[in-house]
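Sequence only, no structure available. Ideas?
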Amino acid sequence: MRYSRHVPPLILHFLVGLSFTNNAIYPLYIQSAGGGPQVVGWFMATYYLAAILGRPFIGSSLNRWGVKPVLTAGIALIAFTPLLYVFANQHWLAMFSIRLVQGLGFGAYFSAFFTLAAERAPDKRRTEMVGIYGLPGMAANLVGPGIGEWIVRTYGMTTFFTTLSSLGLLALLAVFRIASHPHPIPQKRHFQLNRYRPLIFPFTLSLMLSFSWAAPMMFLAPLAGIRHLTGFGLYFTAFALSGIVLRLVGRSWADRFGWRRILIPAFSVYGVGLTVLVFSHHLGFLIFAGALVGAAHGLAFPAVTALAYNFAPRELRGAAMALSTGMLDLGGFSAGLILGWIAENIRVAWVFPVAASIAFTAAFLVTLHVGLSPQHRTPALQPSEK
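Reply:
I predicted one. Tokens follow.
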């Protein structure tokens, strides 16, 4: 295996990850413009709405033109949208419109990037490769939100957005170092629902994983403000550290022992970590919760992402990865609307037990799947892969 070809994508994902993890800072932007918890939820959900609406086009583009054109287009949008917020002048229509474009960029990027990871993986190590390619994104959590919080508190929002655009431009330069060749696949004229039925289960898990993950990303900053906790970015540092350790130590567990044996404890620990946030009146609790959720996410995300690729027929793999990451966006969109309403009308802290219940439900669904289909290994490979 030529390891040098994996270096540019890893660098690229770290740069984009620094921008993506700073989504945790955007609630401060909305609050500075006079928006309450409900508006925070709407704004964060708008990001995911754009990615959802763009998924059919993104999936067909991946199938038709390959990874690199979609990857490049997504990064270009990621690079230039933060600067547009500087000129929005707290005008709500402009802010939400920019958020739509930004969400489309991230949607295209994540679909293309994890398709690239799955393409480059040996058949029996696909979950491991997806996990390794996701490591720089976890590493970005170590410093991204903490630096973003410091920049906003020290220099203001304009410097924050300028920094994000600078990172995006560096990522745009990095993408040209990635070798990827188009692999056009004949397009079918009619959508065949029965071909996507095996993907319903992994899509459902993707949605539930994203819903659970989105709660701290959207509402930890408002909760920290209410409870006068400074340094809430340390939650994401703990999240990243534990996630990186578990992903390195357990990178082959899903391929060796079966994805279901990994996902049941992963989703359960996810729920426990989110429950801890309810009682986080001290910074230590935030750090402990971040460590639990990060460990769970470090195992769950690559396993859930690889499932869609493994279940899909070869000619639908690009679309399957786009739809799988689209389910992640749908989960975030749902979380923004539902949890935003809860934060506005009940209490901000209540968003976390609701998100925890989703994680526990996902663990139950995987347990049920074991009973209905007691095969603990990764799904059988498609005939073309054997």
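The chain has a mean pLDDT of 82.
Hope that gets you unstuck.
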